[in-house]
Amino acid sequence: xxxxxxxxxxxxxxxxxxxxxxxxxxxxxxxxxxxxxxxxxxxxxxxxxxxxxxxxxxxxxxxxxxxxxxxxxxxxxxxxxxxxxxxxxxxxxxxxxxxxxxxxxxxxxxxxxxxxxxxxxxxxxxxxxxxxxxxxxxxxxxxxxxxxxxxxxxxxxxxxxxxxxxxxxxxxxxxxxxxxxxxxxxxxxxxxxxxxxxxxxxxxxxxxxxxxxxxxxxxxxxxxxxxxxxxxxxxxxxxxxxxxxxxxxxxxxxxxxxxxxxxxxxxxxxxxxxxxxxxxxxxxxxxxxxxxxxxxxxxxxxxxxxxxxxxxxxxxxxxxxxxxxxxxxxx
Length: 331
What we know:
331 residues, MetI-like fold
């Protein structure tokens, strides 16, 4: 029980700190990106105090207050569940974001799952058949997946599987609750495109860690007992080699989040990607702050889960975060 409380406290402090820093940077970026800051975004033609509507906008966004006061006013409103109104279409930010969150979250998690399901067996095969032609083929596949950008993979899949073969739809999205079969067909190419960008890294890390573990003395002792190579690989080598994989999963969340935004724009998926793009172009501060909060929550949550899983697999790892744990794993 005490360990659970400590883990929750550590997660809470990490999350609060990341949210404050990330949103403060977004706030400062909007203020410094154009002359006049956020006020100039709302009043590109200048502010006229005689216009009641403009005076109401100033009061709504606390534009007469210093930037620091306005930021902490937004924090207090967000804690009450009020993320403000989008300056782009005058709708509540929460009403625009909430219906899209399950789409983006599902796409990212499925892409991560596919990267692990495909990358781990490929990495294991490369380590097991090291020095043979099969290992060279697998290493070439992993290197190719790691080097090709996600937008190139997406466009190639659209051309081959949607345009030429007609197996999958090239764009749009069908929700899981509407039609399961159509949902899976619409999910297949975007999720696989996202996975392709990460499975190369996953496979190469698994290969590297397995090769290191297979050189250990206890592996040689297991082989001397006459145990099969498959048994030694799965029962004795995979668990210690999984520490590096968990570390990579935690640190790859940022790439997965950005990749999800790109994938959604390319495939015309109605997730958060289009909101991020349009809000950035139009400097919609309330929307950008809410989207930043979502990204930080997802990033910190998966990082913390991976960090905790690493300590479960190896209690010797101190609770000092994934980066320090990576150094321990590599020693």
